[in-house]
Amino acid sequence: PYCDFNSHHAPSGLPEKQYIQALLADLANELPHIWGRKLESIFIGGGTPSLFSAESIDELLCGIRALLPFRPNIEVTLEANPGTFEQDKFRGFREAGINRLSMGIQSFNPPHLQALGRVHNREEALRAADIARSAGFDNFNLDLMFGLPQQTLDEAMQDLQQAMALYPTHLSWYQLTLEPNTLFYKSPPPLPDEDLVADIQLNGQQFIKNSCYSQYEVSAYARPGLECRHNRNYWEFGDYVAIGAGAHGKLTHPAQARIIRYHKYRQPAEYMQQAMQGSARSGEQTLTPADLGFEFMLNALRLREGFSPSLFTERTGLPFQHLKAGLDQAVQRGLLDFSGELIRPTDTGWQFLNTVIQLFLED
Questions:
Q1: How many CB atoms lie within 10 A of CB 215?
Q2: Of 41, 68, 250, 336, whose CB is crowded by the most CB atoms within 10 A?
C-alpha cells in the first residue's frame, strides 16, 4: 500500500526465460551509447528479483559479462524480500556472482508488517539474515522504515536494536512517506506527528552512531569502507545504464556535450516485446544547463561529508560559477559550509535539506 515502484501481479507465473532474454537484448541495444566503458557496479532491484531462480540470475550475469567488461572487485547487489529466502537458492545466487544483498525488512513488528502489507513475518526476517550468512554473503544491507502507522518511539527503537543485532554491513533507515498513486496516499493511515518523528530520527541516529556505523548519506549508514558503491554513484551524479521494465538511466555524451535521462516501458509484456524489437526506451530528456545545477545538488547534497567543487564541473561540464547564486544564499543563511575544498550541509542545513536544494532552482 505504500510502494510506488513499478510492481506487477503475475498470477500465471514469472516468464523468467523470456524476461532474461529481453534484459540482455535491451543491454545489447544500449551498447552504442556506452562503448569503452566498464561496469563499476550492478544493482538488480525493483519488484522482487529474488523470486527468480539462481539459474536465471546466473544466465543474466553471464550475458552481461559477455557484453561489457567489469571493473575488478565489481559490486553486484540483489534486492531480496525475506519471504523468498531458501538456503540452496541463495547459495546459487552467491555462486552466480552476487556479492551483496539488500533485504527489504521494513519492520520486525508484526502489526506494523501487517499494516505495511508485507508478506513476510518477524521470524522470516530474522531467518533471512542467517540464510544470507550461511550462503556466503558477508556484505548485506537491511532496509528499515520509521514513522510507521501508530508507531511509538519505543517500537521504532526496538526495530533498530533488532536490526543492529543482526550485524548488517549496511543499513538503509528512512521515514515512511505517502507517495502519489499508492493506497496509503488515497487512504492515509494514522501516522505519528512531526515532533514524534523528529524524536525517533534523533534518537535513532544517535543509536546507530553508537553502534559503530557512520551516516554517509541522508538515509544510509555503513560500517567503515562498506558504503554502497552503486548508490554513491547516483549521489555523485554519475552515469548508469538502465535495463528492465520501468528502469531509468542517465548517460553523458561528452562529444555532443549532452546529458540524457531516459526510461523504459513500464508494463513487462510491452517491455519484453520492445526490447526484442530493438529499443525498449519509452522516452528521454536532454538536461539543460538550468536543469543541471538543481539536479546535481539534489543528489550531491545528500552526501554527509559533502563534495568537491571540481566534481560539479567534471559531471556537468559547467563552470563552478553556475552554482554561485544559490551557494552564496545558502552560506549566508548558515545552511551550507564552503571551505574552498568541500561543499557540505551544516547541521542546520542537514535538517532542512529540501530548503537548501530549492535555492538552486532556476526560473
A1: 17
A2: 336
